[in-house]
Amino acid sequence: MATTADIKNGLCIKHNDKLAQIIEFQHVKPGKGPAFVRTKMRMIETGKVLDHTFSAGHKIEPVRIENREYQYLYQEGENYIFMNNETYEQVEIPSKMIDKPGFLVEGMVCNILFHAEEENPLVVELPFYIISEITYTEPGVKGDTATNSMKPATIATGAEVKVPLFIDMGETIKIDTRTGVYVERVKK
User: Fold this and answer.
1) Which residue among 80, 100, 107, 131 sits deepest, i.e. has the most Cβ atoms within 10 Å of its Cβ?
2) pLDDT at residue 145 in the model
3) pLDDT band at residue 168, thresholds of 50, 70 and 90?
4) CATH number of the domain enclosing 31
5) Can you give the chain as a three-state secondary structure string?
6) pLDDT tens, 16-29?
7) What confidence tens digit (pLDDT) does each residue in 44-62 have?
8) Is the same domain home to 114 and 137?
9) Predicted TM-score of the model (pTM)
10) Which residue range is the domain that position 15 belongs to?
């Protein structure tokens, strides 16, 4: 058993019988009253972010998590198939465990968090950026570049992103998978 003194960013704990990962924490020692630890936690099953305050010295139950690299192979119904490149073991991941499955590209290497004792996959983390081709977008109108106007575009994976008006079909762009936002145009 650990205490609040052992809290650090990225630590996974069991909170109310559910797994949560610490995103941020702050030890607070007010001038009057007992010390406490203010945390921001992401619930692993739902992805929901919670604020929780622990009193100083409160017992917490850490959970051992392993981060492993897997390669995305294909989609089968609502599940996505990933393969470990070292052991060639395949694992089936339901779409609810992937934050933005629309950005998955065949052959992409992703990190999968596993519960170490139970060998259960918990979360799939995509690479921060992907490079994809625009398969469909409306043509931009000449002279419409005075503002930061954006238009919808469909990329090769089928996901829809907002791109600047000067981007045309067939161009390759870089996308931030955490936010789903266009970053820059990529030269071929």
Assistant:
1) 80
2) 59
3) confident
4) 2.30.30.30
5) CEEHHHCCCCCEEEECCEEEEEEEEEEECCCCCCCEEEEEEEECCCCCEEEEEEECCCEEEECCEEEEEEEEEEEECCEEEEECCCCCCEEEEEHHHECCHHHCCCCCEEEEEEECCCCEEEEEECCCEEEEEEEEECCCCCCCCCCCCEEEEEECCCCEEEEECCCCCCCEEEEECCCCEEEEEECC
6) 888 898 989 999 99
7) 877 788 999 999 889 999 9
8) no
9) 0.72
10) 2-62
Written as six digits, the tokens of 157 are 């994976």
Domains contained in the chain, number = 3
| Two tokens, residue 60 | 């917490």
Q: Which two tokens stand for residue 12?
A: 């996974």
**What's 103's domain CATH number?**
2.40.50.140
Q: Are residues 49 and 15 in the same domain?
A: yes
